[in-house]
Amino acid sequence: xxxxxxxxxxxxxxxxxxxxxxxxxxxxxxxxxxxxxxxxxxxxxxxxxxxxxxxxxxxxxxxxxxxxxxxxxxxxxxxxxxxxxxxxxxxxxxxxxxxxxxxxxxxxxxxxxxxxxxxxxxxxxxxxxxxxxxxxxxxxxxxxxxxxxxxxxxxxxxxxxxxxxxxxxxxxxxxxxxxxxxxxxxxxxxxxxxxxxxxxxxxxxxxxxxxxxxxxxxxxxxxxxxxxxxxxxxxxxxxxxxxxxxxxxxxxxxxxxxxxxxxxxxxxxxxxxxxxxxxxxxxxxxxxxxxxxxxxxxxxxxxxxxxxxxxxxxxxxxxxxxxxxxxxxxxxxxxxxxxxxxxxxxxxxxxxxxxxxxxxxxxxxxxxxxxxxxxxxxxxxxxxxxxxxxxxxxxxxxxxxxxxxxxxxxxxxxxxxxxxxxxxxxxxxxxxxxxxxxxxxxxxxxxxxxxxxxxxxxxxxxxxxxxxxxxxxxxxxxxxxxxxxxxxxxxxxxxxxxxxxxxxxxxxxxxxxxxxxxxxxxxxxxxxxxxxxxxxxxxxxxxxxxxxxxxxxxx
Length: 555
Description:
eight-stranded parallel beta sheet; alpha/beta; eight-stranded parallel beta barrel
C-alpha cells in the first residue's frame, strides 16, 4: 500500500447503505469499480453494533459480506475490511477483535475502522492486527461534523498506532476543505471521505443534494492540499466517484502536503483553586418568581459558601434554566455559580451555543451530567433526546475553539452504586476527557463512605463529598425507595421515626456534621444539598463545613 501511494492517490468507493436500495453488496461494489475506484470496502460497517444484539446472525452476515466482496474484487483493486463503531456503552476492542480474526482468516489484511467517534479500543485493535499480520495496512477514520471540533485531538490520539488516519461522514465536502487546511499532520497518509452534502427528508427517504461535479470540485482542493486517499460517504454514488476519478486523472500523481502555519490561539486555562471549597446546591424554581431563590443565594454566600450549584430539571421535571440562573448569580451576587448541564433534550449545537453564552457572561465552570430520565407521565407528550453522554460531551466542550477560556468541568460520582468499580471506570474516562473533579451523590451509608475512600485512591481530580440533610422519616423513605442513586443506612432511617419537625431537623444537622467529619480526610470539600428550602439549616451546615475545611485533616 505504501508503495502504491508513492505513485498516486488511492480512490475509495462511496456510500453503501444510502445507495444500495434493491442492489446486492456485490453489485454496488462492481459499480464503484466501474466508476474508477481502486479501493473498495466490505459491506460490513453495521456488524459491530449487531454483534451486541444477535452475535450468531451478525457473524453469519459478516462471512456472507466477506464472500461477496472477495468474489468481485479485481486484481488491481485493494479490498478493505470495513469495521464500524461499537455500541455506545460497549468497550469496543472485543467487538473489533471478533471481526479482525475472521477478516484475516479470509486473507484480507487491509483494514478501515470507519466513522469512529472515540479512540477507545483502537490502539489495541491496531496493535492486534500488526501482531497477527505484520504486513497489514490499518486506516482509522473518524466522524467529523461541520464544525471540525476535536479533529486534531482525534488525529493525534491515533497517529502512533494507525498506518493512515482519516475523516469521514457528518460533514459536507465544502466544510471538509476547511478542516483539512487547518489540520497539523504527521507523515502518514490522510484519508478524506465527506458526505455528498447535508441530508433532507423527503417523504420517508433521506436525500443528499450535493451533485457529483460540486463534490469533485471540493475534493480537488482537498487533493491539492496533499491528501493521498479520497472517497465518499453518505449520499455519494458511483457518479460521485466517477467525477472524482476524472478530476484525479487531470492532476499530477504526486502532490506534496504542507502543514499550516498556525499561530496558537491564546486561551485562558480553567481555574484550579478548588481546594477546600463549599458547594451548596439550590434547586431552581418551578416558575419565573426568583425572589426566594436569590434570597437563598445571598444567605448561603453570607454563611460562607464558595459555590452555588444549580440543578438542571431535577427528576426530569421542567424548572427555571440553570444556565440563565447562573448568569444572574454571576451578575448580582458575590459568589461563583456552577450550573448543571444535562445531555438530555439538547443536541451538541445547542449545548455549544449555551457554553458560548455562559463564557460571555464570565461563567467558566460547569457540571455535566447525562440527565435524569423523563417521568412516565410526561412521555406521552415529551420525548427525551440523548445525542451524547456526559463523558463524550466533556471531550467536545474541552476542544471548543469558540471560547476564550477553558471551562472547569466537573462530573457526578455515584458512591452509592452497588457496582462502584464501573462508576470509577466511567469517572476515569471523564478525567481523560477533561473533568477536573467530581461531586458525589449523598453519603448516608457506610458503603458510600468506603467508596469515597476508594475514589480518593484511584482518581486524580478534586472530590467533593455529597451531604444531604434528611429532614424527616417520610423524606428518608422517599429517598431510599424512589430516587435513583440514593442509599440510606437502615439505622439512620430508624432514628427519624416518631420525631417532630424540630427534632428531625436537629437530627439532620447532627448526622450531616458527623458524616462531614468522617469524610474530611478523603475529600477536597463538601457538596451540600438543600432540602425543601430549609435555609436556616443549610446556613448552620455551611458554617460547620467551613470550620472543618479550615482544619488540617487527619487520616
